[in-house]
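Is this the right way to post structure tokens for a design question? Let me know if I should format differently. Anyway, here goes:
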């Protein structure tokens, strides 16, 4: 499928893990993609891999033309970085159709009552406020380009819908992001759709502390008997961004291997 042919997407935190899988899926479906991240070397490696995927698909299709990929390094909560990334997308490709707010942090581990308020504020700043500001900046850019922003997907978490032992304020931030998704969906309709996904444990470096050394035990708690892979999230995100989800907004899709339907007792 080429659901994103001629479209442009910006994926924050797109150099690895779930963000990279989303970028790869969008490129495979015809999009031009701009990814962001904090480290230039990681971004360069990601762009090289995306370009290799793209080149292989072009050869298979017998075509030398296709979508392009690029990267902008910076912190998700830095206003200058946001402005530069969005301006780059519009200047390079003439438009910005889709935004994926994937960047997030969780620098603390342990009970909520032991958390440092300074660190709590940083989590909320990056995971919630920055996602809002990326959205606001992208919407403002919409007025300056045609046809402009179409859809947004926010990366929440299953920790945003239930208690999350040892990562309490990550969960609090992701719960706030779910509500923010609803608020923005109401305000931006009908021009821009806003949805979210809430994955359970996905095998990435970011989530390693949740399963390392006990993967089989953790996986046994899921009805589908395995942990998630980044591609398990990329597919649903691509769906929600695409016109296949044209009558869906303000929703949060649980991607949890059946964890939310586990029998009690």
């Amino acid at each position: 499928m080429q659901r994103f042919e001629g479209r442009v997407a910006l994926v924050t935190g797109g150099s690895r893990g779930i963000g990279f899988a989303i970028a790869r899926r969008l490129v495979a479906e015809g999009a031009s993609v701009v990814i962001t991240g904090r480290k230039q070397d990681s971004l360069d490696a990601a762009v090289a891999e995306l370009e290799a995927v793209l080149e292989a698909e072009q050869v298979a299709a017998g075509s030398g033309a296709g979508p392009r990929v690029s990267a902008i390094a910076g912190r998700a909560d830095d206003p200058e970085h946001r402005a530069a990334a969005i301006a780059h997308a519009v200047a390079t490709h003439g438009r910005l159709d889709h935004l994926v707010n994937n960047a997030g942090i969780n620098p603390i581990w342990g009970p909520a009552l032991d958390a440092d308020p300074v660190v709590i504020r940083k989590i909320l700043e990056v995971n919630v406020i920055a996602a809002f500001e990326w959205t606001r900046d992208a919407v403002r850019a919409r007025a300056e380009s045609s046809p402009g922003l179409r859809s947004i997907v926010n990366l929440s978490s299953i920790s945003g819908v239930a208690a999350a032992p040892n990562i309490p304020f990550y969960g609090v931030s992701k719960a706030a992001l779910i509500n923010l998704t609803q608020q923005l969906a109401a305000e931006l309709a009908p021009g821009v759709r806003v949805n979210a996904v809430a994955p359970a444990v996905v095998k990435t470096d970011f989530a390693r502390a949740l399963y390392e050394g006990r993967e089989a035990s953790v996986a046994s708690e899921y009805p589908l008997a395995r942990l998630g892979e980044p591609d398990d999230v990329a597919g649903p995100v691509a769906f929600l961004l695409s016109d296949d989800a044209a009558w869906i907004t303000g929703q949060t899709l649980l991607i949890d291997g059946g964890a939310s339907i586990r029998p009690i007792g």
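Format looks fine. Someone answered above. Worth noting: The beta strands are 8-11, 32-37, 69-73, 98-101, 151-155, 193-199, 252-255. The two ends are 43 Å apart (CA to CA).
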